[in-house]
Amino acid sequence: MRQNQQLELRKFDEQLRHLTDLRIALDLNDGVKVNYGKFGTLLANVKDVTGVKG
Prior knowledge:
- The protein is mostly helical.
- It is built from three helices and no strands.
- The longest helix has 20 residues, at 3-22.
- The radius of gyration is 13 Å and the shape is flat.
- It starts with a helix and ends with a helix.
- The model has no long low-confidence stretch (mean pLDDT 84).
């Protein structure tokens, strides 16, 4: 695996671990935009889904 990929995966893992530790509550009644936005920059294209830059 290339060094850039390893760094990217490490950063993703740190962000995922942080959000996991927060135990963010998801409510299906809130809809995709609200729940997707709770993940900040962890998910791709947040702005495309929520209309707000993550």
